[in-house]
């Protein structure tokens, strides 16, 4: 019998706020992401997503449908992933990859119109680039200048069931 993981992607709810406020990110990671406590605002164009393990928050990111997406993709059905982080005490346990491996299914279910997830990752953030590559993201070859330097634009193409047939 194959082990099942209890890592899940959940839309942010206020029950997670206290633990997200207490997330610790080491100083060397802060330039590459935003602390979850700064990204909790939710609306129809920006949805915070909590990565849970056994119902406890271990990670976080935001999915955007806003105008910002057009800075990264010309695809009108694309969404933008930002502010990805794993609480420092939970890093190295495989939660990041397990969460990213669920992103396609989660997106197809919650955002059926979406056929691409895009993100920008700093050129110096090699661990994050490797994570995204393992999860199926591809370097588009496009670059963007961010607050702390060059960013690679990466894309995950989502296959929908009707497209698979």
TrEMBL record:
Keywords: Acyltransferase, Transferase. PROSITE patterns: GNAT (PS51186). Pfam families: Acetyltransf_1. Coiled coil: none annotated. It comes from the Bacteria. Its EC number is 2.3.-.-. The keyword Transferase applies. Residues 9-159 form the N-acetyltransferase domain. Signal peptide: none annotated. InterPro entries: Acyl_CoA_acyltransferase, GNAT_dom. It is an enzyme of class 2 (transferase). GO terms for molecular function: acyltransferase activity. The keyword Transferase applies. This is GNAT family N-acetyltransferase. It comes from Fictibacillus iocasae.
């Amino acid at each position: 019998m194959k082990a099942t993981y209890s890592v899940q992607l959940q839309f942010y709810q206020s029950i997670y706020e206290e633990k997200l406020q207490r997330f610790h990110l080491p100083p060397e990671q802060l330039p590459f992401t935003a602390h979850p406590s700064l990204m909790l605002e939710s609306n129809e164009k920006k949805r915070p997503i909590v990565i849970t393990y056994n119902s406890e928050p271990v990670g976080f990111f935001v999915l955007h449908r806003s105008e910002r997406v057009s800075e990264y993709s010309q695809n009108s059905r694309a969404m933008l992933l930002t502010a990805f982080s794993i609480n420092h005490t939970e890093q190295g346990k495989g939660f990041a990859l397990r969460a990213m491996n669920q992103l396609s299914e989660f997106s197809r279910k919650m955002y059926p119109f979406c056929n691409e997830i895009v993100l920008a990752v700093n050129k110096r953030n090699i661990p994050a680039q490797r994570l995204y590559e393992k999860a199926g993201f591809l370097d588009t070859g496009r670059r963007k200048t961010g607050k702390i330097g060059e960013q690679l634009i990466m894309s995950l193409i989502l296959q929908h069931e009707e497209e698979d047939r």
